[in-house]
Amino acid sequence: MQRTMNGPRWVALVAVLALGVTACGGNDEASPGTGSEDAPSGGGELISDQFDLSGVEIRIGSKDFTEQLILGQLAKQALEAAGATVDLTENLPSPAGAREALLAGEVDAAWEYTGTAYINYLQHETPIDDPIEQYEAVRDEDLEQNGIFWTEPAPFDDTYGIATRRDFADENGLETLADVATFVEENPDEATLCLDSTFGSRDDGLIRFEDAYGVTWPEDQQTVQEFAIIYQATADGDPCNFGEVFTTDGRIQSLDLALMEDVESAFISYLSAVQINNDFNEANPDVAAVIELISAPLDEALMTALNAAVDVDGEFPEDAAAQYLQDQGFVE
Amino acid sequence: MTAVAVGSVDSRVVGRERKFLRRARYIGVPAAVATACVAMYLYVQSQELDSIESRIINARNIWTAAVEQIEIALWATALTLVVAVPLGIALTRPWARRVTPIIIAVANIGQGVPAIGLLFFIYIVLIRSGSTAAILGMAIYAVLPVLRGTMVGLQQVDRGVVKAARGMGMSKQSVLLRVEMPLAVPILLTGVRTALVLTVSTAVLAAFIGGGTFGELIISGQAQGRPLAVAVGSLGAAALAIMADWVGGIAEDLLRPKGL
Question: ipTM score here?
Fold first, then answer.
């Protein structure tokens, strides 16, 4: 009779739903700041003066959250400025959708984070502390094992963090993760933490905090939920006083969350670079050169401002990306 | 005479066969589920789990997930029944004829809205507790089939029987309780079974809002490229759904009024 659902269908369903619920964040406050104010006045090196990619066709994939959408648009618009024809596939499911599309040959290039690649794709258990060493390990292994080329990474690091609402931080004198560790020990009843399904089990997640700061976060105080709703839940203090966040997320700023300083460098680095199918890369080496040119100025302040422009001010990712390219003098 | 005798022998054979099939189902379904679980257990045991897999796939997590999923499903089913059965009875009374389509339309919306959207809405706007929000969401989701089941069950009762009962001098209330309800029970029970299976299987979505369940293993495994965790979570959820269906089937057999 009602043999309704079986395993594989569920996996597919959940995967599809996961796709639908990430992405867009809340636009509670309309604070200005599109990123242009923090921008250095730009190198003024017009892409179109330096590169000619006319006749080159490239398919790019980007994942399903704000930062990836912006990065995808950056790559698309920059390569188009060089004359290439770009086909951008957006909203591939996190974290592996873009990667799978790349490996399957459905796209030629996709942005990725070194930490994610090192742990998830290359299946290492222990991350490398030094950001550049970790990047180099990823670059070398991925080229050798999978024929995937990695461009030089952008300077910004989008890593994990733990945040709390501002007044709660002030009340309890919380500024650093060391303060949080002390708080967890002294007030386990109030140490509620919202985290997504991966943070508790990945080697580069909560355990790094616990090991570095010598504390165990009580399991029954952890609420595992979809990443996108953690920010609001943390800002409201309901149900969590603390939340797992990405450090470049615009909602930290818009919801006025206090990001706890990682004084012991517990969390590892997630540098962003573009993975390119190496056959494609060898045939079109200028693609990587364009990407490296535009990602060179992209530091944490700029990336956060770009994310906020979309998540907070409600701009479209393509407009935020276009603004950045103009501000930096890459396009007119 | 002979024809009647042959007929009764036939029906006895059919009856015996049916009994045999039912027994086979009673034993076969849990046996198959148990076999699948044991096979998965042995397979997991034979694998060397890396640190991520062993943090997801462990006895404590699986036990918690199962308990959370069963709890959500039972509460949601109970809530569904408390709402949908009385509502279904009320809506089949002649005086409710005008509002019936409206209520059905509302119930339709409950099921038409994507379950995950409903859950997020309830969680963000109403209840910041994953499991409570999930119970409410699942119940809203399951109201329609049970409501429909109750209504169809009552409506298919032969009007002649009802009229005869009234003619015998039974009050409207006792007609409902002693004639209509017993005759509607089989269809009603199918509705209950549907609700149970629906809530057990959709309960995995609670993982998105902090309600735990096997969904947590599935999402966590999927997100980190650990298919084994996805497989274990899926098998757990599927096993619970199949067993819920099995329990529902037994309840249908046991609670069905004798002689029907």
Answer: 0.71
What are the pLDDT digits (tens) for A268-278? 889 999 999 99
Structure tokens at B257: 């009024």
How many residues in total does chain A contain?
A: 332
Distance from CA of A216 to the nearest CA of B (A): 15
- H/E stretch holding A194: strand A193-195
Q: Which amino acid is at B89?
A: I
Q: Are A14 and B242 an interchain contact pair (Cβ–Cβ within 8 Å)?
A: no
Domain ranges of chain A: 29-157+271-327, 160-259
Class assignment of domain B47-255?
A: mainly alpha
Please state, in angstroms and rounded to a whole number, the distance separating the CA atoms of residues B100 and B153. Answer: 15
Nearest CA in chain A to B54: A201
Q: Please write the tens of the pLDDT for every residue from B43-55.
A: 999 998 888 888 8
Q: How large is the angle between the packed helices B59-92 and B181-202, nearest 10 degrees?
A: 150
Mean per-residue pLDDT for A300-315?
Answer: 91
Q: pLDDT tens, B146-187?
A: 888 888 888 888 889 889 998 999 998 898 888 888 888 887
Å between A95 CA and nearest CA of chain B: 6
Quick one: closest CA in A to B227, which residue?
A: A11
Contact criterion met (CB < 8 Å) for A21 and B205: no
The amino acid that residue B98 corresponds to is: R
Which pair of structure tokens corresponds to residue A233? 């839940």
CB nearest A120 (choices: B224, B248, B249) = B224
CA distance A85 to A134: 32
- Residues of chain A with Cβ-Cβ distance to B50 below 8 Å are 123, 125
Choosing among 3.20.20.370, 3.40.190.10, 3.30.420.40, 3.30.70.260, the CATH entry for A29-157+271-327 is: 3.40.190.10
| Of B56, B114, B208, Cβ closest to residue A226 | B208
Q: Are A29-157+271-327 and A160-259 in the same CATH fold?
A: yes
Architecture of domain A160-259: 3-Layer(aba) Sandwich (3.40)
In A, which residues are within 8 Å of B197 by CB distance? 2, 4
